[in-house]
Fold this protein.
Amino acid sequence: MSKPIKSTIVVCDTEVTVVSFGDEDFISLTDMLKAKDGDFFISDWLRNRNTVEFLGIWETVHNPAFNYGEFAIIKSSNIEGMNAEFIRMSLPQGERLKRLNEIAIRQMTTLTASNRKALPGEKK
């Protein structure tokens, strides 16, 4: 198996890392966002329903151990909807952000776990 080849391209005066592995190229979204307010754009992107759907499709194609049941829960308990509920509950912005961040971390852990028993905090 060949080793990945790392290179950079320049997009709007920003260096963006490109990793080539075999006949596939992967670009760094983080590098692309350096020219902007990266944290804002990343969190905004992760809240987007289309992003959640894209991640589900990508996992379906590329991850044979993808947990469809857990993903269905995540896809239905969308972060944007949760934020709206927290606003309705009159939670301050800092508290909403903290809770949404915890939820997003739990959801990403669930999505990326290849074995249901491997989830943190679960009894075997």
